[in-house]
Write a structure and sequence with these properties.
Largest sheet: 3 strands, antiparallel
Strand content: 15-25%
Structural class: alpha+beta
Strand order of the largest sheet: 1-2-3
Helix content: 25-40%
Number of strands: 3
Number of helices: 2
Low-confidence stretches: none
Distance between the termini: 30 Å
Radius of gyration: 19 Å
Number of domains: 1
Order of helices and strands: EEEHH
Length: about 100
């Protein structure tokens, strides 16, 4: 094996996502089957940002807007916040590739 990767036995598990209430968190995403939003009997694979990823982004935004940086001009602050949010959204916009 050229990458010399090994499975972490403590983190590795087999999950049947078709069972109700099961989900898998991987690379900042949560994968789970949800009920159809139109009330049909179908279920679909939902791929959304994980709670941990959302929490981390909220912390990053709090850090950007903390009183520690009150000396920054508002336009510069807005530019930095927008750059952060655009990067985060660009990463999680890619979830449609899996669904």
């Amino acid at each position: 094996m050229w990458l010399r990767l090994e499975l972490n036995r403590e983190k590795t598990r087999v999950v049947d996502l078709k069972q109700v209430g099961t989900s898998v968190n991987f690379l900042g995403y949560t994968f789970r089957y949800d009920r159809d939003s139109y009330g049909r009997q179908r279920r679909y694979l939902s791929v959304i940002p994980s709670k941990k990823a959302l929490k981390k982004e909220r912390e990053a935004l709090r850090a950007l807007t903390s009183s520690r940086y009150c000396f920054k001009p508002i336009p510069q602050l807005i530019q930095e916040i927008n750059r952060n949010l655009q990067g985060w959204a660009a990463y999680f916009r890619g979830y449609r590739l899996f669904a």
